[in-house]
Amino acid sequence: MLEIRLGNDWDDFLQAEAAQPYYQNLMRFLTAEYAKNTIYPPSVEILSALKHTPFGDVKVVILGQDPYIGPKQAHGMAFSVTPDAKIPPSLRNIFVELESDIGCRKPDTGYLMPWARQGVLLLNTILTAKAGQSKSHANKGWEQLTDAIISRLDNREHPIVFMLWGNDAKTKATMINHNKHKVLTAAHPSPLARGKFFGCRHFSQANTFLEEYGYEGINWQL
After folding, report:
1. What is the pLDDT of residue 184?
2. Which residues contact 169 (CB under 8 A, 6 or more apart)?
3. If 0-12 CB within 10 Å is exposed, 13-18 middle and 19+ buried, where does residue 43 land?
4. N or C: which end of the chain has fewer CB within 10 A?
5. pLDDT at 162 over 70
6. Is 66 tagged catalytic?
């Protein structure tokens, strides 16, 4: 059965979740899925978002739906792709909004690790998917784990910016204390949303909020 250790301050949280039946059932399901199907991301990268953005460092949470379902794209961080991958349409739309909002030039890479290292937790509501089948791992236990992650962040003393993109992510707004944290919602950046993501100005709003609380804003330029 899959076991995940991150080597940072998320590990105590994961250990507590691992003792619960839902988590054990999820890991058994994933072990079988990885053995017989092509699953994204690779099993060693399932929780890369937590690995590269420790709990104590989180300033911003960008919450999406589930991983990319094509080869050599997903690597465990929402919307990010591997360094040599072509930039997918959803991410291309994110870069369009970034340029419009704060003047960031469009980058040549869709690898968002520089954001993660500044405290941007790139999280999906579902963390794995079968190749070519979006939401194929829905209702297997991921939602319970990611809800627990959001709840733990909500209880943190310091304020966080939550960017909830798409209908699945927006449902999490009720879990978050709006008096303490900044909660921003928008359509998913997918082209299927017909451009409704554009104009949300989440990136400038996030930095304004962080700076008001004495934190350094995120350098969104890749």
Report:
1. 98
2. 63, 64, 65, 125, 185, 188
3. middle
4. N
5. yes
6. yes
Q: What is the pLDDT of residue 4?
A: 76
Of 9, 12, 57, 66, the catalytic one is: 66
Write out the two tokens for 121: 């937790």
